Amino acid sequence: MPETWDRKEIPGYIVDIDTGERLEFQYNPDNFADDKATNYAAVQIPGMSHPRYQYVSGKARRIAFKVKLFKGPVRDKVNWLRSLLYPEHAGWQRHGQYSLQRHASRTGNLKTPLATPAYRGSRLKNAPHRVLFIFGDLYPGVECVVRSVKARYFHMFDRDNLLPQHAEVDLVLEEYVDESIDYGEVRGG
User: Rounded to two decimals, what is the model's pTM?
Assistant: First the structure.
């Protein structure tokens, strides 16, 4: 039986539920913050030394961690994560890998036709995509919404195009739940 030190690490990943695309972690996060809180209404009763509490609701479960990206398409991976924060608008048309840089180099015009009010949809078609967060047995498939993506690029940039070669991305996910969860489900009972 092989020793633990010579086994390949199982990578964690995030799956875009709507498209099936996934981002596998190049390096697994070193730690996670998994936070869940509740809301109570404090009722002040005259003459009592302490308030009485009435349960109101639970707050969202938040899972926060840092993803490290090194070499390769670092910017593309960060943009993929950021895209999970944005909705889809009615009237928006994708043109493959269309980019403002490509449009400007072809036409000399810095304003893309898709960015003008006549073309850009302003009505919401779909909310930002939900994701499935998978990290072994700790998070075997938690459905989430992406609440925050904070990227830091530092000390390594490509000499030819100045694209980042190293980034750390702080992610905050919130568990997406359709039905209320009973305490017995959390305890595993």
Answer: 0.77
